[in-house]
Amino acid sequence: MMIEKHISALLYRHQCVIIPGFGAFLTEIQTARLDAGSNTFYPPKKLISFNANLKNNDGLLANHIALQEKISYEQAVSDIARQTESWLSRLNNREPLILKNLGEITSNLEGSLVFTPDTPVNYLMDAFGLSAVISPAVRREELKVQAEELEEIAPIIFTPERKRNYSYLRYAAVFAVLLTIGGAGFKVYQDKEIAEQTLLVEKSVQEKVNNRIQQATFFIENPLPAVKLPLKEDNKSYPYHVVAGAYRSEANAIKAMNELTAKGFKARKLERNRFGLYPVLYGSFATYAEAHEKMRDIHKTVNREAWLLVKEL
Questions:
Q1: Phi-psi region of 103 (alpha: psi -120 to 50; beta: other; left: phi over 0)
Q2: 73-92 and 60-69 are packed helices; what angle lies between their axes, rounded to 10 degrees?
Q3: Pick from 243, 242, 238, 234: which is nearest to 285 by CA?
């Protein structure tokens, strides 16, 4: 069974896909960029990386394979174990492991796994259908030089014309100026009259409104008591979560949550997911950058197998 096709399918919707006993493929969003050397615009995409330290089974890949292949969860876990055993055997024999639409994994002299991504597909669903665009460079300096050369070759020549008598046009111009001044003066006068009438109407309306307000103020006998409005709670969304682990037993999940809380984390236990597991969180964050930085700190100090979950709660 080629489990790499199932890994590719999950990478469209998840940022972390763990292959139990082997490692995990992680994604990170790269914004759109411009290659100035080739004048090429590249759309945003997901960058694929590999972490050989994340090996614990979180149930994601096995459940997906069980649903797609119409087999039991236990059979899917067994098939994944056989596949990863075959992969590790090839890598131990210094054979490269090529995974379609993911990349190539090799083993170096120290025995560590080295991943070289090769993703002809874009796993970022928001950029589906977008491709690279090549734009020809605008050569401004060359066009400027060509224009200057043309000016030197073909200078502009003014042709003298016979002098004509246009004295009658001066009188027409004077008449037009006087007509314009007269029209402008009439318009200023009319605008002034309209403004004065509008101001009188507005004053009258305002006096009536003030009288209404004064009457309403005097005739209120039983005013209502003041009402304290509750402050609006923070509706900020925290869709990025650093996961400590997922437990089949709710009691074990609560125990793990209490231990993390005692260590100073804002730990939480999520409800049972569709895989029958209770995820326990180190904490939830508003942005991917905050969650990723916290996960890196946890990898260094507490748990190298913590992973990132993106989910609106």
A1: left
A2: 110
A3: 238
| DSSP code at position 158 | P
Give tens-digit pLDDT for 114-159.
989 987 777 776 665 666 677 666 565 566 666 666 666 655 544 4
pLDDT tens track for 271-300: 998 888 999 999 999 898 998 899 999 999
Kindly compute the dihedral angle of the four CA atoms of residues 212, 215, 216, 218, in this order, to the nearest 10 degrees: 160
> Do 61 and 6 form a contact (C-beta atoms < 8 A)?
yes
List Cβ<8 Å contacts ≥24 apart for 70-79.
77/20, 79/1, 79/3
For 276, the token pair is: 């029958």
Question: Domains, the chain, ranges and CATH?
Answer: 4-134 (no CATH), 240-310 (3.30.70.1070)
Question: Closest by alpha carbon to 107, among 22, 182, 36?
Answer: 22
